[in-house]
Amino acid sequence: MRLRTQRRSSARSSAPFRSPWTHVAQAAAALAAGMGVGRFVYTPILPLMHTQAGLSSAAGANLATANYIGYLVGALMGIAMPALVRSPAVLRGSLIVLTGTLVAMPATDSTTVWIVLRLLAGLTSALIFVVAVSSVLSHLRDHPAHLPGWAFGGVGAGIALSGLLVLFLRSVADWRSAWWASAGLAAVFAAVSWNLRPEGTPASDASSTTGPARRPGPRPHRWFTALFAAYTLEGIGYIVAGTFLVAAIEQSSPGWAGSGAWVLVGLAAVPSSALWARLGRRWSRPDLLCAALVIQAIGIALPALIGGVTAALISALLFGATFLGVSTIALAAGTHLQFPRSVALLTGGYSVGQILGPLVVTPLLHHGYHQALILAALVVLAAAGAAAVLRIGFPHHMAVVRSTVPGRRSAPAETTPTRTDRP
């Protein structure tokens, strides 16, 4: 009787949820709260804090760096303690703490307290990210690739909605109201994602060895080195635009243009990961990564080289359409290379790049933000150069071995490359 009960319980735990779109919506809401609002709402609020709260450019860069340090710490916690990734309590606690940091920002004028709050916001946003992404990759692994892409689009939705809030409030209220309204928006997203189903307990080692033996193939070290360099450089370049784009646009355009451009960044980011995943059916990942980085570099440089509202909106569209896509392509390429702990290593390099970005451009901020954007665009072009090196001899035909998952049929090893993997 007990054995029969255990079997029924096991069957329920391995049974699919009602609709994959429900899971996509919950994961997207978590990413919207943790990343779109909790992390990136600082970008449109930064100009308001400059003019109304007396925040200097250097202090603004320090707040950004504190947030990225916290994000790195949170990501490393998720890597070192895998149980965190599978805990609903960690997700819910992080959502609560993150929302609390947004509420507390306008409660003080102390730069030191702001740094601590942004550090905590970065740490909790990273934990939310790893829980949500691990959940998506675990529970949607047998579904089309565009479904996880729409979940990642939650980051763009959070950026767009929080940007709209700030755009409206800048004409009727002050910077404090912008933070409080953002906290309310984060709370709404947190409520939607509250029952997100985390990643399940991984299969035992024995089950993971039941599949076909891995075929000998080319050593991926040289390609992974180029990929790691490209993704780390992208972390440096993209985060400069992700932090200072609105402030840079407002230097040469009407005040609404900066916040409006940030809303467009979010709207363009919503479908970007799903669209890049679909493009992966026709073109190889190195080609797509190189193209996305070149497009992004153009978008970052436009406000500094041309100026004006039109250039600002085109810049926002190009940046929003690529920054999530680059991450999607790079992490997929690392997984394809079968390099040990590729996702963890790439995420670590990307996080270090995000910390370095604001620090590298801080000496340039005394002359405004345009020089910082030009430098960021050059760094992203260097990343595109590394991606171009990745194209040379990339092992498109490496076999992929999938481990079995309890309660599901194990997928056979991929011996025939898909269209994505053709040279």
What does this protein look like?
There is one protein chain. This protein has 423 residues and is mainly alpha-helical. It has 17 helices and no strands. The protein has helices at residues 2-14, 20-37, 42-52, 57-80, 82-85, 88-104, 111-139, 146-169, 175-193, 205-208, 221-252, 255-269, 272-279, 285-305, 309-337, 342-361, 370-391. Helix 8 packs antiparallel against helix 9 (175-193), helix 8 (146-169) packs antiparallel against helix 12 and helix 11 packs parallel to helix 16 (342-361). Mean pLDDT is 81; it is low at 1-17, 204-216 and 399-423.
What's the topology here?
Elements: H1 2-14, H2 20-37, H3 42-52, H4 57-80, H5 82-85, H6 88-104, H7 111-139, H8 146-169, H9 175-193, H10 205-208, H11 221-252, H12 255-269, H13 272-279, H14 285-305, H15 309-337, H16 342-361, H17 370-391
Helix pairs in contact: 2-7, 2-8, 2-9, 3-11, 4-7, 4-16, 6-7, 6-9, 8-9, 8-12, 8-13, 11-12, 11-14, 11-15, 11-16, 11-17, 12-15, 13-15, 14-15, 14-17, 15-16
Précis, in short:
With about 425 residues, this protein is mainly α.
Q: How would you classify the quaternary structure?
A: single chain
Task: Provide mean pLDDT, rounded.
Answer: 81
Radius of gyration: 21 Å
Low-confidence stretches: 1-17, 204-216, 399-423
- Let me know the number of strands: 0
Residue share in β-strands: under 5%
Q: Count the helices. How many?
A: 17
Biggest beta sheet attributes: none
- Give, in order, the helices and strands: HHHHHHHHHHHHHHHHH
Helical fraction? over 70%
Between the first and last Cα atoms, what is the distance in angstroms? 56 Å
Shape: globular
Coarse structural class: mainly alpha
